[in-house]
Design brief:
Layout (H helix, E strand, L loop, with lengths): L1 H52 L7 H4 L3 H14 L13
């Protein structure tokens, strides 16, 4: 049984070594760029959220206008999957 245990220990050790090598080669190299991009996305989201909360129009509304048709179609499919033939809110029509 000790032979199988040492073999399992060697496999685990080799896996950890490969995992560390992978982290050093691929993840560490791009970590700061990924963190910077995540911060930029979070800042943009929070700015849009606060502007909406203060009653200021969303500055990206003009740029997202072409996507509105796809969003309405996706919303319609979603509420039908939820078992609603028509959405119950009066302000939204499908």
């Amino acid at each position: 049984m000790s032979g199988a245990t040492t073999l399992l220990g060697r496999i685990r050790s080799a896996y950890r070594t490969v995992e560390r090598l992978h982290t050093e080669l691929f993840i560490t190299k791009y970590r700061s760029a990924l963190q910077r991009e995540a911060r930029m996305q979070e800042d943009a989201f929070l700015a849009t959220l606060y502007l909406t909360a203060f009653g200021i129009d969303d500055p990206s509304a003009y740029h997202t206008l072409p996507v509105t048709g796809e969003l309405v179609q996706g919303f319609h499919a979603w509420h039908q999957r939820q078992g609603l033939d028509q959405f119950p809110d009066f302000g939204v029509c499908c």
